Amino acid sequence: MKLRSIELEVPDRESAVRFFRDTWGLLEAGERNGVSYLRGTEDIPYVVSVAQASEPAVAAITFSGSKAELARIRRRAAAAGAPLSPLSGFDEPGGGSGYLVQGPEGHVFRFVTERKRVKKLRPDRDRPLQVTHVVLNARDREACTRFAVEVLGFRLSDRTGFMNFVRCDRVHHAIAYAQSDNSMLNHIAFEMTDIDAVMRGIGRMRDAGIATFWGPGRHGPGNNVFAYFVAPFGAAVEYTSEVQRVGSSYRTGKSEDWKWPPNRNDHWGVSARNADAISRGPSGTSASGRSPPDALFPLKAWGSRPGAWSPATTRRARWSS
Ligand SMILES: [Fe+2]
Prior knowledge:
A hairpin with a 3-residue loop joins strand 10 (155-159) and strand 11 (163-167). The chain is globular, with a radius of gyration of 18 Å. The protein has two domains: 2-116 and 300-305, 2,3-Dihydroxybiphenyl 1,2-Dioxygenase, domain 1, CATH 3.10.180; 130-296, Roll (2,3-Dihydroxybiphenyl 1,2-Dioxygenase, domain 1), CATH 3.10.180.10. The protein has 321 residues and is an alpha+beta fold. An eight-stranded mixed sheet has the order 2-3-4-1-5-8-7-6, with helices on one face. It has four helices and 16 strands.
């Protein structure tokens, strides 16, 4: 199982695509039915899709897996009463088929078996390789984590004072849940080739008039280098590199394992502390007084997204966590 892409909806698709292509470094991978697809340099058909909509939203977070993996999740989701909806032969780069499943707080996950991958491009320090994790705000991160572990079959890598990190392959986390008063997007992380590529990205963003709101630094859980920004369309995005790869012997960390000394919030100790900006709810303000970027990016119910794919049927089962 592998995190493949995130499907976004924004009020101004053209400007979001321009940002991802001209500043962030993604490559256009096509457009159909009013949806733009962008890729990185890895062999994944696309990593971000952008559709026009009246409100910004995450339509889905997509994983690719084997038929057996998808069948297992589907069985568990049905048994758990999670809303589930089939997809067949959707018209997207990579093709394939699969289904949507909804987590306890309305987070929408899409699982697909791809028909084909695309040719891997030469790694480029000015372009992301792929999306490597998505962090979601959660009112009840423990319930969301149970769903990820028991229904989706993910593994808990680490738990800190306010975040739970889960993985679906050897990458330390594909999803993390940040304790919050809402269930919206927290941020999307794009993997870069190395630290140099992260630093070059910081420079490219600065040229575009967008400063980091946290970073550069090196995280505790995942040990990855990070730099966070607010994209012009309102979402928090991260350049990251050197994300830790872990195996089945990895010991799940507890919050006591991830305590920083005073005035530290990363390994390097040089990053300005503004973590609140990506972990507070819509009514909160960050330590710097800025509005938190996640306030601009609510997750909304799936099934309302127009375009290439839409759920054929909806099982409105009551979810109990
Ligand atoms: Fe991150």
